[in-house]
Design a protein that fits this description.
- Two copies of one chain form a homodimer.
- The first copy, chain A, has ten helices and no strands.
- The longest helix of chain A has 27 residues.
- Chains A, B: This is Putative HTH-type transcriptional regulator.
Chain lengths: 202, 202
């Protein structure tokens, strides 16, 4: 038995493959990876925290690394794009604020652990690389639009993304103080002003 | 038996408390923490990697957290100060380059794991906080000297440290490309120019 809903389903999806059960399992996985690390968390405890039978976890994700990778991807989608309101400063401040909120969740903390380059399996590392690449692409795209409009001189948009998100990661991971919107504004203001002052306009 | 040198020592320091043995044990600890996490590494393997008897590890560090904390502190001293050559840009570029090199060692990777705020014990967390505080103090001191000399407008030096070292942590931890001196120069140039452009001089 997995759960009541799934076992009564006419579509015969064994192991509770409903979106609800899957979501609960992935959230529990992120929570336990954040606490115990990718090598340390236990399937039994995932099932317990998610409130499902452990066969639901084993059947849907026989591969431990696939489970971690999906849990990370679940969280990544929220930060895969940046709004374009026409106001570059505002869009970047909104993005950094959302990034800080995302990093401060079990998903974000699990991602932080998985970033450590020497430790993880290729499945997890590829997933992390894909998530970070999506975020990098989102920043690059927004910055390139700004450059095309003449809001910003032409600049290596990958590097600009690192300058903006690096301090956010550091402040959130360190956990000494909360990251505020004022922090996001200061970061964006200093970086944009620094680029305008050091890079010649086209 | 612990090791030949220590057991023949007239000072009777049991357990190989010589600087050499201690150094080897701490280096091995950092290496294994970087690979297996703080909860995951094994004393037996520390002894094996260090080339000492395992009683040397147990006797000197009966407390696992103390062992991790000392291993982290071993690495911290190199980055606890910044030179003052009178050239702020150069001193900061040198520091960020040294920081990147330090983060890319087993010690730095172990520190990166220990930074994750939700996971570790109070001994390890206090040590991490102390290391980061020392580094923050080093940057603050050098920046405050620059402000006093009029090289930089008055600015929150803690925040400046986060703006400078955040991208270094991100690039090194991500591990997609090597961190170069050119990266350090671009970071310092953008941040210093951004501060000069946004903060009024005294």
């Amino acid at each position: 038995m997995t759960d009541g809903t799934a076992s009564r389903s006419p579509a015969r999806r064994p192991g509770g493959r409903s979106a609800l059960v899957r979501g609960r399992i992935l959230a529990a996985t992120a929570q336990l990876v954040a606490r115990d690390g990718i090598a340390g968390f236990r399937y039994e405890e995932v099932a317990e925290v998610a409130g499902v039978h452990r066969t639901s976890v084993y059947r849907n994700w026989p591969d431990r690394e696939e489970l971690v990778a999906e849990a990370l991807l679940q969280y990544a989608e929220d930060l895969a794009s940046i709004a374009d309101t026409g106001d570059l400063r505002r869009d970047l401040v909104d993005y950094l604020t959302a990034l800080a909120n995302g990093l401060d969740t079990p998903f974000g903390q699990a991602l932080g652990l998985a970033i450590q380059p020497t430790r993880e399996s290729s499945t997890v590392r590829q997933t992390v690389a894909r998530i970070l690449e999506q975020r990098g692409a989102a920043i690059r795209q927004r910055v390139n639009v700004a450059v095309d409009r003449g809001d910003l001189p032409p600049f290596d948009s990958t590097f600009l993304g690192e300058m903006l998100s690096g301090p956010v990661h550091l402040i959130v991971n360190r956990g000494v103080r909360p990251f505020t919107r004022t922090d996001a504004e200061r970061i964006v203001d200093v970086v944009l002003a620094g680029i305008r002052a050091t890079v010649p306009s086209r």
